[in-house]
Amino acid sequence: DAGVIQSPRHEVTEMGQEVTLRCKPISGHNSLFWYRQTMMRGLELLIYFNNNVPIDDSGMPEDRFSAKMPNASFSTLKIQPSEPRDSAVYFCASSRSSGVSYNEQFFGPGTRLTVL
Amino acid sequence: GQQVMQIPQYQHVQEGEDFTTYCNSSTTLSNIQWYKQRPGGHPVFLIQLVKSGEVKKQKRLTFQFGEAKKNSSLHITATQTTDVGTYFCAGPLSYNTDKLIFGTGTRLQVFP
């Protein structure tokens, strides 16, 4: 079975450009999570969706960040405009939610973003 | 806000030595999960503990959940080079939520 799929795997862009990260969760999973990982701040949850609905976006740094989940098999995380401090590895993860927090999360390979 | 801290931050061991990482939460957890991230890789789920005082083993790995459900530990017996990576504990922000708060992680380096 395919795991969580993310694209692109690497992205190098210039400050001010728009960046779109993509994620395809595991089929049948109904919760999707976007994380950011840096050496300084560790692994941070940015936003998570349940049944395609954003449940908690309190981790989204600022208005430059937005996320969508138009259907059960696709999600995007957009940064516009990008800044050098956004450089990080962005992970998407999915899980099968049953309404209680007893579910392992499956992580994608991540997108390494570098903003020059 | 809720915090999950891990110690040590880094650990270097000789192959064959034991290793332990400790996880401490500022609040009581309904359960705790452990993940391993290899260098350049992504976090991979290892195990989940739910009951107070629970102990689970996976080959050379022993996981423990504290009686007060605010701390946990991962012990590796006789480390191997394949154990290299960062180990994270993670707990839910509150009951009935999928949102996990990840610990700060312990990076393990094993020298042959």
How many strands, which pairing sense, and closed or not: the largest β-sheet of chain A? 7 strands, mixed
- End-to-end C-alpha gap of chain A: 36 Å
Helices and strands of chain B, in order, run as: EEEEEEEEEEE
**What is the CA-atom radius of gyration of chain A, in angstroms?**
13 Å
Tell me the radius of gyration of chain B.
13 Å
Q: Classify the secondary structure makeup of chain B into a structural class.
A: mainly beta
Averaged pLDDT of chain A = 93
Largest interface: A-B, 25 and 22 residues
Low-confidence stretches of chain B: none
- Counting DSSP E segments of at least 2 residues, the number of strands of chain A comes to 11
Biggest sheet layout of chain B: 6 strands, mixed
Shape of chain A: globular
Helix content of chain B: under 10%
What is the overall number of helices of chain B?
0
Would you report the number of β strands of chain B?
11
Strand content of chain A: over 45%
Q: What is the count of DSSP helices of chain A, taking H or I runs of 4+ residues?
A: 0
User: Helix- and strand-based class of chain A?
Assistant: mainly beta
Structure characterization notes:
- The complex is a heterodimer of chains A (116) and B (112).
- In chain A, strands 2, 4, 5, 6, 9, 10 and 11 form a 7-stranded mixed beta sheet that branches. Chain A has a 4-stranded antiparallel beta sheet with strand order 1-3-8-7, with no helix packed on it.
- Chain A is 0% helix and 53% strand.
- The radius of gyration of chain A is 13 Å and the shape is globular.
- Chain A is built from no helices and 11 strands.
- The model of chain A has no long low-confidence stretch (mean pLDDT 93).
- Chain B has 112 residues and is mostly beta strands.
- Chain B contains no helices and 11 strands.
- Chain B has strands at 4-7, 10-14, 19-25, 32-37, 44-49, 55-58, 61-65, 71-76, 85-92, 100-102, 106-111.
- In chain B, the strands form 2 sheets. In chain B, strands 2, 4, 5, 9, 10 and 11 form a 6-stranded mixed beta sheet that branches. A 5-stranded antiparallel beta sheet of chain B has the order 1-3-8-7-6, with no helix packed on it.
- Chain B is globular.
- The mean pLDDT of chain B is 94.
- Chains A and B meet through strand 5, strand 9 and strand 10 of A and strand 5 and strand 10 of B.
